[in-house]
């Protein structure tokens, strides 16, 4: 059934559906749909798919793999200079220069060393790299993101680095169909975001919510949802 669905619909159709899901979720909690940005997650997808989404009006894209992302950016930046590229995957410190040289945003900063290297390696002719701190909110035993009590010290470092701009927080919550648990984690993140905003009033980004937990994320204050499979279809290879 799902396969039929994907054959019948185009990327433009599915993008429109994603926008209407965002609008409906926003209306349910009295928020302006325009206060929530849609990041199209194009990992594993060919550049033709990115161009199809671009032609349907999409301008910001998320990539998870440094090398794959850098190749796509290099291939597309000549013809599509107004695409905004977001890095949303795990990053080893020996790969920071690729992110610093190619991307506009980096969502998964969780260590001082990574922040420092991104700052030092950001080319002077580029605008500062926009940064979200990744919070480890998941009940699962995962190592991505920092513990909540480390948020403020890391934010302090990032705010001092001239080639980085602190924009907010990002998290990948527990993969669960349990709405209660989704809401609990999202509301913890929202509280952390409010705390961070007291210290850094200019932050504006709470990056949370994916294809399966969009409603809970938006009702908890998400300002950027990251949607992949609901726009581009199932991933071309496992991640
Ligand atoms: C893959 C990915 C997404 C998109 O997930 P979908 O379930 O395909 O919408 C969002 N955020 C991150 C960090 C991802 O790695």
TrEMBL record:
Residues 22-235 form the Alanine racemase N-terminal domain. InterPro entries: Ala_racemase_N, PLP-binding_barrel, PyrdxlP_homeostasis. Transmembrane segments: none annotated. It holds the Pfam family Ala_racemase_N. Keywords: Pyridoxal phosphate. The modification N6-(pyridoxal phosphate)lysine is found at residue 43. CDD domains: PLPDE_III_Yggs_like. Pyridoxal 5'-phosphate (PLP)-binding protein, which is involved in PLP homeostasis. PANTHER family: PROLINE SYNTHETASE CO-TRANSCRIBED BACTERIAL HOMOLOG PROTEIN (PTHR10146), PYRIDOXAL PHOSPHATE HOMEOSTASIS PROTEIN (PTHR10146:SF14). HAMAP family: PLP_homeostasis. Belongs to the pyridoxal phosphate-binding protein YggS/PROSC family. This is Pyridoxal phosphate homeostasis protein.
């Amino acid at each position: 059934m799902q396969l039929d669905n994907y054959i019948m619909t185009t990327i433009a159709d599915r993008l429109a559906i994603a926008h209407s899901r965002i609008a409906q979720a926003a209306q349910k909690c009295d928020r302006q749909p325009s206060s929530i940005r849609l990041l199209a997650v194009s990992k594993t997808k060919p550049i033709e798919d990115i161009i199809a989404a671009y032609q349907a009006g999409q301008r910001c894209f998320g990539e998870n793999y440094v090398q794959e992302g850098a190749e796509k950016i290099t291939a597309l930046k000549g013809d599509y200079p107004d695409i905004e590229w977001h890095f949303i995957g795990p990053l080893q410190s020996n790969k920071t220069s690729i992110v610093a040289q190619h991307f506009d945003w980096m969502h998964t900063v969780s260590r001082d060393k990574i922040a420092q290297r991104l700052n030092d390696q950001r080319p002077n002719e580029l605008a500062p790299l926009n940064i979200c701190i990744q919070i480890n909110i998941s009940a699962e035993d995962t190592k991505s993101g920092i513990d909540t009590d480390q948020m403020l010290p890391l934010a302090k470092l990032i705010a001092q680095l001239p080639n980085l701009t602190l924009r907010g927080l990002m998290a990948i919550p527990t993969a669960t169909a349990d709405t209660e648990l989704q809401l609990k984690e999202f509301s913890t993140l929202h509280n952390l975001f409010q705390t961070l905003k007291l210290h850094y009033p200019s932050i504006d980004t709470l990056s949370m919510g994916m294809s399966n937990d969009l409603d809970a994320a938006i009702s908890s204050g998400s300002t950027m949802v990251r949607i992949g499979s609901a726009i581009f279809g199932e991933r071309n290879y496992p991640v």
